Every structure is written in C-alpha cells, then in structure tokens.
Amino acid sequence: MSELTTRLADGHETEAWREQWLDRLTAQAARTRRPSRTEQAVRRRERAEDAVVWRLLESGTPVGYLSMLQLAEDGTTIVVLEELRIDEPYRRRGLGRAAIEVAREWARGRAPRISVSTDPTDPAQLALFRDAPIGSQNMHKDLGERPSMPAGIIARRMSAEEFGPWWHEQIIGYAESFVLNGLLTEEQARERAEKQSGELLPSGLDTPLHDIYTIVAEDKPVASIWVCHEVEPNTSFVFDVVVDEGHRGKGYGRAAMVAAEQSALAHGSQTLGLNVFGHNDVALGLYTSLGYRPTSQLRTITV
Ligand SMILES: CC(C)(COP(=O)(O)OP(=O)(O)OC[C@H]1O[C@@H](n2cnc3c(N)ncnc32)[C@H](O)[C@@H]1OP(=O)(O)O)[C@@H](O)C(=O)NCCC(=O)NCCS
C-alpha cells in the first residue's frame, strides 16, 4: 500500500496544473456538447472564497494534484473537489482513494459534503466515486430522423390558462428534487427554483427560444414539456417534463419526449440534453431507453 503525502503546490506548479486543467475541461466540454461549462468552471474558481491546490507525493516523488474550492452558493457554503489527478504511472495503487481522504479532511468544518462532477464513461472514476450518491446527472442524445408521435396523441402549445398552474407546480417539483437529493434545504431550494425559473422565462410563454407544450390524449391534457433552444450551439435542452399523476405509465412521457425532439429538430438542433435528479429512477429509465446517455454526474461525498 503506497503512502500518500501532500504539500501545497507552488506558484509555478499551480499555473502548470491550471493550464492542463483548462485543456482537459475544454476537451470534456466539447465531447459532451457543453462548451460553456469551461467558462462556468473558470468563473467558479474566480469567485471561490478559498481555493487550494496540493501536490500529491509518494515517497517524496510528485505523483499528481488535488484541487479544492470553498464557495458560497444559494446562501450556504459548499466545498467542491475541482480535480484529482494521479499521473498515469502511479495509478491503481490506492493513491486516488488516499487523496479523497485528504479532500475530506480539508472539507471538515467547512461543509457537510463535497460536490464533485464525474465522468460516467470513465471506469476509474466510476470505481473511485461509487459510494458517493449521484445528486443529478446530465444526459444527451444526438438526434437523427424526426420521430413520430404515437397514434392518438398530439402536442400543442401550452395555453395561457394552463401556464399559471403549470408554473406553480413546476417550481414546487423542481425545489422538491433538490431537497430529496440532499442538495439544498427546503428554503434554499424554493428560492433557487423561483429565481432560476423566473430568469429563464421572463416573458412566460412568449419568451424567445422556449417552447412549452401540452400533450393531449383522448382530448384531455395529460402531460407537459418545456424545451429551450440554443442552450449551447446546436443544442436544445429539456428543462421540465411532467405526466399528470393519474395518467402515468401509459406512454405519455415517451410521447412528450418525442414532442421535444421534434421541437429541437425544427429549430435546427443536433443534440437534445437534459438533467435528471439522482432519485428519479423512472425518468432515468425512460431517458436511457430513448437513447440518452449520461455525460456528467454530480456526486456528493459525505465528509
Ligand atoms: C481517477 C484517478 C484519480 C484514480 O486514481 P488511482 O490512484 O488510480 O485510484 P486508486 O488506485 O486509489 O483506485 C481507486 C479504486 O478505483 C479502481 N480503479 C482505478 N482505476 C480503475 C480503472 N481504470 N478501471 C476500473 N477500476 C479502477 C481501483 O481498483 C480502486 O478500487 P477499490 O478501492 O475497490 O480497490 C486516476 O485514474 C486519474 O488521475 N484519472 C485522470 C483524472 C481523473 O479522472 N480524475 C477524477 C475526476 S476529478
């Protein structure tokens, strides 16, 4: 078993790490069709209240880096594991796991959990973070042919009368998901849901680049779906999809997703993305069966 020690990276090492981190972020963001992610990560680093980059050592030899941030978000302090990297020749000998303990030690007394964004296509990350629950994950699908709506189901634009109640339910549901996944307290979740939704839809149904549909079956509204275009170049995003409680399990969720794909294709998008909370196994099953694949997972490590 290898012995891991640490020291703070000096200015030169920190700069070297930062440059490589940026290159890796940019490559990952391009792969997952989320180029704006790099800029977001850079901004997060800039607004951190505390940031630390460690040089990881084995018997005095540098073997990698660990970088952590502490920042204020939604009125609370969060700790983020920004990057843990073990140089290739030193992998698979317990150093990664030992470094997680260093991260935990730093986080203690700052926040109850560490947030880390992981790559679900990397077996090493899947193994290393397997005990850290998934709070939410991003998924995407590269669109092909225009899919058809199942017979007897149509998608029409949401009416002004339907918008008010839908808006209210949408905020409650979104806030609940943060709480269920242990990401925020009830009050923080409500505040965040109201703020984010308000910013996204300043003109309600008339907000440019947003399409909100009601799914109708047997002349009754049974579901709704909210799609936003140009979230990233050539990419649309599903912000919300809900099947009314009495109508679940009848294929209307699938039909709503068809409406979203049609909307994205009509807008010229090549990719449709979405975010699904960790607790939502039913939604995850639906998206997976429709061909969506996870691109990043937000996990929480208990300190
Ligand atoms: C992810 C990373 C930090 C792991 O470091 P490491 O020192 O090789 O990890 P460890 O030796 O401590 O192994 C941790 C666990 O992962 C498993 N594992 C490591 N690499 C694996 C691989 N390629 N495939 C499958 N499992 C793997 C180990 O068997 C071990 O499992 P165990 O605890 O059940 O025995 C390292 O691969 C790395 O630097 N990758 C590039 C950067 C990165 O992805 N960082 C993480 C996101 S910030």
Kindly give the count of domains: 2
Mean pLDDT: 95
Number of strands: 12
Total number of helices? 8
Ligand types:
coenzyme A
Broad structural category: alpha+beta
**CATH-scheme architecture of the largest domain:** 3-Layer(aba) Sandwich
Give the CA-CA distance, first to last residue. 23 Å
N to C succession of SSEs: EHHEEEHEHEEHHEEEHEHE
CATH topology of the largest domain: Aminopeptidase
CATH superfamily of the largest domain: Gcn5-related N-acetyltransferase (GNAT)
| Share of β-strand residues | 25-35%
Unreliable residue stretches? none
* Shape call: elongated
| CATH secondary-structure class of the largest domain | Alpha Beta
Trace the largest sheet across and list its strands: 1-2-3-4-5-12-6-11-10-9-8-7
Gyration radius (Cα, Å) is 21 Å
Residues in helices, as a percent range = 25-40%
Architecture overview:
The chain is an alpha+beta fold and 303 residues long. The protein has two domains: 4-132, Aminopeptidase (3-Layer(aba) Sandwich); 142-295, Aminopeptidase (3-Layer(aba) Sandwich). Helix content is 37%, strand content 35%. It contains eight helices and twelve strands. It has helices at residues 11-31, 36-46, 95-107, 123-128, 160-180, 186-200, 252-266, 281-289, and strands at residues 4-8, 50-58, 61-73, 76-86, 113-118, 134-142, 153-157, 210-217, 220-232, 235-243, 271-277, 293-302. A twelve-stranded mixed sheet has the order 1-2-3-4-5-12-6-11-10-9-8-7, sandwiched between helices. Strand 10 (235-243), helix 7 (252-266) and strand 11 (271-277) form a beta-alpha-beta unit. Helix 1 (11-31) packs antiparallel against helix 2 (36-46). The longest helix has 21 residues, at 11-31. The two termini are 23 Å apart. The model has no long low-confidence stretch (mean pLDDT 95). Coenzyme A is lined by residues 83-86, 91-97, 118, 122-125, 127-128.
